[in-house]
Amino acid sequence: MSLLVLFPFLFSLCVLTVRCNPISGLTSLPPSAAKVCTLHNSFEPNFVADGDYVIGGIFPLHYNQEMPDLNSTYRALPVKCNGFDPRAFRWAQTMRLAVEEINLRADLLPNYTLGYKIFDSCAYPLTGMRAALAVLNGLRESDSPMCQGASPLLAVIGESGSAQSIVVSRILQPFRIPMISYFSSCACFTDRKQYPTFFRVIPNDDYQVKAIAQLLVRFNWTWVGLVRGDHEYGRFAVQGLLRELQGTKVCVAYQEMIPLLYNRKRALQIMEVMRLSSAKVVVVFSAEGEMTPFLRDYMTQNITGIQWVASEAWVTASVFTASEFYPYLGGTIGFGIRKGHISRLSLYLQTINPQMYPNNMLVKELWEALYGCDPFALPGSLLPPCSGQESLLEQHSAYMNTSNPRVAYNVYKAVYAVAHSLHNLLLCQLGTGPFQNKSCAQRNNIHPWQLQYYLQEVEFNIAEEKVNFDLKGDSIPYYDILNWQRGKGGNIEFVNVGLFDGTKPAGEELVIQEDRIMWPCFTPQVPVSICSASCLPGSRKAVRRGEPVCCFDCVPCDSGKISNQTNSIECTLCPEDFWSNNDRTVCIPKKVEFLGYDSLGIALTVISMMGACITIAVFAVFFYHRNTVIVRINNSELSFFILFALTLCFLCSLVFIGKPTFWSCMLRHTAFSITFSLCISCILGKTLVVLAAFTATRPGDNIMKWLGPKQQRTIIFVSTLIQVIICAAWLIDDPPSPSPNTQYERSKIILECSVGSSIAFWCVLGYIGLQASLCFVLAFLARRLPGNFNEAKFITFSMLIFCAVWLAFIPAYVSSPGNYADAVESFAILASSFGLLFCLFAPKCYIILLKPKKNTKQHLMVK
Ligand code: TRP
């Protein structure tokens, strides 16, 4: 359907003439209003130039608008826009410059001229819509498209903010008029079904959020705050960033939204959240419009240490370059869109002054904004008057920042894209065209959709940079990483510290020169923004319930487990024979423990050596006094045997000290049991002798004959032999052997001698017990026998001690862990040996050495 028919329905702005309105016969318009075509409301373009082909431009020349009056008792005044934006004004001028440049070129659109109509969107969707409608409409009744031929509007350059672009795109869409945005980066535009005529010369935000996510990961900023403006741009960017952060170690501490209509109370609440949070990095998706009042309030709040991460929408906003912002915003890092060079821009901008455009309100406002004066001051105006010929200098950076234009460069590219497409369209050779039946577009009646075809296909270079659009109308993703540093005048300068090239393979996209970055508050290191400090090796992370994964506690590893990396999630168990060190950072071989020559071992050694020495000393005394009565009376041979056995007993406790080896284990119990058996056998022999000697009532009773020295030796031999046999059986069948024991203490290996066959072990002990008990019973019977020196009572006593020691030994042995069991056993050996030694030999030694007078037959035999 032809555009011409659609226009009248679309524009309620235009009251149609009866002549034009097909259904006019049915309407009952007052006759006076009926016959003329008048604009319902006219919107003057801010800049306009006629040409063979006209393109529209929509720029946010003001960053604010007054809310419309809802009173409908009178005709509403045109929406009032406030806050002149010199930056957007520069973009608009860039469009004019580009068109003028193209018109002068002989190689691009020769013989044709481009025209333009530039409107203000006031950075607001509703006003953007007005601009879109206005750009479609003719300027006067006489050029009202429905009243006069075809719409000459072929394409629209615009809009800036995505929220406005969405509205503009929706309005242009039914007419298939292509639009090329120079600043709308919202990822939402990739939906070709919803925005079929949308093109842009700025990368899609999907790339920007990817870049921001990589930046956060790169600097280990794992706890970040997100602040956004209340518009599609902010909403989609935050959504995208959250999606991008999934699966990384970065968590979002808070998400805040600056309201569309700036509200100080709400802003202060957001700042309170920022102040209280430990997230020092704040990513902001917003534009100058909201950011300016927000940051002004922020500066009054005395919040320090914030590292701002700026999105492309405000990272190069010249409003913030003023020196007052430096202490608060210095160090900000952000992603700036690609810059370029427009050689004539600076000169061109300088040509604009109030005298050249006396009727243009915007130029007046520019002067007001830059010089604070009114070039057309009437008496009573608020600002001081000025000539209007003041020179524009670089210091008027809000307007004159032309060295490295970014958005302006996009505008420039967009205009060239239209021109090149149009050029290609006009080059179309009849019969080879892309349209139905290989037709071309008609030069004098080009339809915008025909231009769209060529836009989609266009590819050209501007200063070595390739410009084209992909199938979704997007352009090449490339960002500069900018860092806000202090300039010479104390103002803020944007310093390039790296780049993000989305066309590079994954992982190589982000390049940062870290040494060039200046951090906020002059700190030399990268700011830290984490929820919980990382867990050192030796501990692991424990996630806090209901909190993001970046917030965790560090729990030290249990003993026996280690973690050797920072931030480990789990502690790993040490292998079998290893144990954790004190710091729980490495597994070290377990300590092997045994009864060694430590204090306990040394004490036992000393005691046993002492015992052996004392026994030898007693032996010497007895040997020296072997002819005295007391030695002879008590069967000197047996006494020497006992002393010999006791010496061995003392010495065999030494086998228990030191590292258990195959031999020492075998030796331990066997040596001990055999020497003790020998010892007790001797004592038993002695007891028997005593008993026999005194029970032999009549002299010549031959009981003594049966217990002569020979028999005594036999008894001793046999009863010791039994023990030897038991031991031999033990050693052959299941000998004790060294065995590492990890049961008592998990952190140590206790090297002990396993007994092997425990039956044999208890048999051996039982046999000694049996011998001792027998000895005890016999000695007990003989204790009251006459004689001044009755050995039986000493034997009874010694056996009592012996049995007591060994009875006490059993529970102590069973319950002592590992190496202490050895100590207990060796101690029992020593104690019982000392018991025997003292009970049996102390009284005699006393008489021999101290009371030699008593050492006579008479004395001992008194009765
Ligand atoms: N890239 C932003 C966008 O797509 C840039 C922008 C321009 C903007 N003007 C704005 C963002 C106003 C928010 C508000 O929208």
The proportion of residues forming helix, as a percent range, comes to 40-55%
Task: Provide the list of bound ligands, each named once.
Answer: tryptophan
If you compute it from the alpha carbons, what radius of gyration comes out, rounded to the nearest whole angstrom? 54 Å
Looking at CATH, the homologous superfamily of the largest domain is Response regulator
Total count of strands: 29
Name of the CATH class of the largest domain: Alpha Beta
* CATH fold name of the largest domain: Rossmann fold
Distance between the termini: 154 Å
Number of helices: 26
Query: What's the arrangement of strands in the largest beta sheet?
Result: 12-11-13-14-15-18-19-20
How many domains, as an integer?
Answer: 4
Shape: rod-shaped
Structural class: alpha/beta
Largest sheet: 8 strands, mixed
Q: Average pLDDT, to the nearest integer? A: 85
**Spans of at least 5 consecutive residues with low confidence:** 1-29
User: Proportion of β residues?
Assistant: 15-25%
What CATH architecture label of the largest domain applies? 3-Layer(aba) Sandwich
Keywords: Cell membrane, G-protein coupled receptor, Glycoprotein, Membrane, Receptor, Signal, Transducer, Transmembrane, Transmembrane helix
Pfam families: 7tm_3, ANF_receptor, NCD3G
Transmembrane segments: 600-624, 636-658, 670-694, 715-732, 759-782, 794-814, 826-849
Protein name: G-protein coupled receptors family 3 profile domain-containing protein
Report on the architecture of this protein:
The protein is α/β, with parallel strands linked by helices and 863 residues long. It folds into 4 domains: 3-203 and 406-468, Rossmann fold (3-Layer(aba) Sandwich), CATH 3.40.50.2300; 205-311 and 317-342 and 477-522, Response regulator (Rossmann fold, 3-Layer(aba) Sandwich); 539-589, no CATH class; 599-860, Rhopdopsin 7-helix transmembrane proteins (Up-down Bundle), CATH 1.20.1070.10. Helix content is 43%, strand content 16%. The chain contains 26 helices and 29 strands. Strands 12-11-13-14-15-18-19-20 form an 8-stranded mixed beta sheet, sandwiched between helices. Helix 17 packs parallel to helix 25 (818-850) and helix 24 (791-815) runs antiparallel to helix 25. The longest helix has 34 residues, at 662-695. It is rod-shaped. The protein starts with a helix and ends with a helix. 43% of the residues are buried. The model is unreliable at 1-29 (pLDDT under 50).
